[in-house]
């Protein structure tokens, strides 16, 4: 998978590396994070992690909750942010106004966030279509598949349906679900992406088998 150095000329669909995060099963590594470029406005890059980097609950309890108050939002903007980016890199991470968080869920200001339903539909591709070059369905790192301190363990499809897999270098890897930030069909549910690119609305917020693909906006003017 080819990566490029980012610049004002970086195109949507290209992959860049920025920051580090554990990606092996033992979790002791600091591996460069691959990010897929969703947009380039000339002033900033809108980035989504190419793979699922961790497995987390949207919230620790099965209760009505907004994105604003969720445990996952807090984790992304504290623990993940501080682990993934060094001091110099943090200066390039812009604060983003996040809307489309769900009915009665207020807009937020986030350094790191999940994609919303509207963003994922506009900026990622559907399985089998080539109109956009950012994969909606994806696989997790080895680190995301291990059971973590909160008991979360990424579910990986292991059946025999070809559409549930991604082929890389002639090896088949099972896809996994990953969270969106938008509230689902009730306030105790959130949207998520299925293994065949479907956008689903019924993920209970305390489920411990869904993955996290962080997103953020990188300031090109500070480079």
Written account of the structure:
This protein is an alpha+beta fold. The protein has one domain. Helices cover 13% and strands 28% of the residues. It contains four helices and 13 strands. It has helices at 71-84, 87-90, 117-123, 142-145; strands at residues 15-21, 31-40, 44-49, 54-55, 96-98, 108-110, 165-168, 171-174, 178-183, 189-193, 199-204, 211-212, 215-219. The strands form five sheets. It has a four-stranded antiparallel beta sheet, covered by helices on one side. It is globular and about 40 Å long.
Summarize the structure.
This protein is of the alpha+beta class and 223 residues long. It contains four helices and 13 strands.
Write the layout of secondary structure elements.
Elements: E1 15-21, E2 31-40, E3 44-49, E4 54-55, H1 71-84, H2 87-90, E5 96-98, E6 108-110, H3 117-123, H4 142-145, E7 165-168, E8 171-174, E9 178-183, E10 189-193, E11 199-204, E12 211-212, E13 215-219
Antiparallel strand pairs: 1-2, 2-3, 3-13, 4-12, 5-6, 7-8, 9-10, 10-11
